[in-house]
Amino acid sequence: MKNVEVLILGGGPAGMSAAFELHKSGKHFVIIEKNETVGGLARTLYYGEFRTDIGPHRFFSQNPYLNKFIGDLIDKHWIKVDRLTRFYIDGKFFLYPIELKDVLTNIGFLKSFKILSDYFLQQIKNVFIRKPSFSFQEQIIKDFGRTLAEFNMINYTEKIWGLPCSEISCDWVKQRIKGLSLKEVIKKSIIKSTKGPKTLIDQFYYPDMGIGLIWEKIREIIINGKTGVINLNSYPLEIIHTKEKIAEVIVNINGKQEIIKPDYVLSSIPITEFVNLLKPEVPQDILIAVNTLKFRSHISLFITINKPLITNDQWIYFPDKEIPFGRVMEPKNFSNKLAPKDKTSLLVEFFCWENDKLWNATKEELFKKSIDWLEKIGFVKSNEVINYFIHKEKYAYPVYDLYYKEHLSKVKNFLKNFKNLKLIGRSGCFRYNNIDHAMEMGILAARNIIEGKQYNIEEIGTKPKYLEDGYIKT
């Protein structure tokens, strides 16, 4: 049995940020991470001369502490990137975020008139009918009008989540489309405002060797500082508790079982897994509630290509349901160090459920599904492909269905009984966080231990203003 001050389950952005904060205070900790490297969903994958993140990652927090945190950590490798993102509908590319002139040019006067008239009629209706929205579909139509909602929001959202928008919580609008409205788009096009909501950002920061560079650098510092132990290819087997605390955690570390007795536990592993590992088993109503929570899975098809560049976009959305993939990313447009000078690559993203037809498809089947469309769109020819690979993530996105909040609240209220436990990160908190929010959660959870305070981690990422300055000030 090993006694440790802090046990961190999961070495993603939240776990690694917590570890770094503990390291700076001289606290001893142990990280248990199931993958072969740190970073979780924000790690960088290596394929020979090529690198790619698991989907597009960027950093655009206005929190000066976090910007300095990463800037000091990776220094000259912290680069500013001009953003270009588009979506592809009915054979045409549209700028994202929406620009009025671009939309009018692409869809013509009649469709544009329909979008604008629908929007203004909906705003009039909203004045007289003040019924609160329950679903994503209700809220998005209220905010944008039916024509624009159906043009690129409802179909893409259903593609991501595998559910009708009438079965998705309106919380998804509040969290992911904060501040964005047709009114803002029109206003920006008229007054040429340089300020805008979350999705109207023209630049972002990025580590030039991939987002994983942040966590790899933290790992290097921790190993050299000898304040903590990072166990890779490791995972918890049982989490033994009393009524008031997590007493012991039985872990598999590279095939060997060990018992860890922690003073504190910070968990960023999926909340569903955490609860199901608890011994004694939790009450039946809690077990039912946690097993009702769902995660959407993600498959990356990474294609290396014998040409210097395909587009200037960092990523492109594909709302049309006849196209099997949902998003395509070209890593070289994040940093030219992610591919050789005369070559490039594409990361083709599929959203699925674990063990559905897509999840069980071979890499050859996924490539065949993709290459036909990539050729049709004009991106790449099959004879230009060097190689292709697949990567799967089971717990990619917490699903905000209509009743998730009720079930999640019940589970979290039960877990509050364990005074030495803090849930952090996207999977641990069951919240669709960005990297900056996950980092804040980890840092503040560590400070709860270091300072003996109780920062409210649950508030992080809930402000109506997306580009928030954060909770960490010094």
CATH architecture of the largest domain: 3-Layer(bba) Sandwich
CATH class of the largest domain: Alpha Beta
Tell me the helix content: 25-40%
Largest sheet: 8 strands, mixed
E-strand count: 19
User: What's the CATH topology name of the largest domain?
Assistant: FAD/NAD(P)-binding domain
The stretches of 5 or more residues where confidence is low (pLDDT under 50) are 196-200, 466-471
| Rg calculated over all Cα atoms | 23 Å
Taking all residues together, what is the mean pLDDT?
91
CATH superfamily of the largest domain: FAD/NAD(P)-binding domain
Protein described:
The protein has 474 residues and is α/β, with parallel strands linked by helices. The protein has three domains: 184 residues, 3-Layer(bba) Sandwich (FAD/NAD(P)-binding domain); 105 residues, no CATH class; 104 residues, Polyamine Oxidase, Chain A, domain 2, CATH 3.90.660. 36% of the residues lie in helices and 24% in strands. The chain contains 14 helices and 19 strands. The longest helix has 29 residues. The chain is globular and about 70 Å long.
Descriptive keywords:
FAD/NAD(P)-binding domain, about 475 residues, globular, eight-stranded mixed beta sheet, Polyamine Oxidase, Chain A, domain 2, alpha/beta, seven-stranded mixed beta sheet
Compact overview of the structure:
This protein has three domains: 2-42 and 210-293 and 401-459, 3-Layer(bba) Sandwich (FAD/NAD(P)-binding domain), CATH 3.50.50; 96-200, no CATH class; 295-398, Polyamine Oxidase, Chain A, domain 2 (Alpha-Beta Complex), CATH 3.90.660. The protein is built from 14 helices and 19 strands. 36% of the residues lie in helices and 24% in strands.
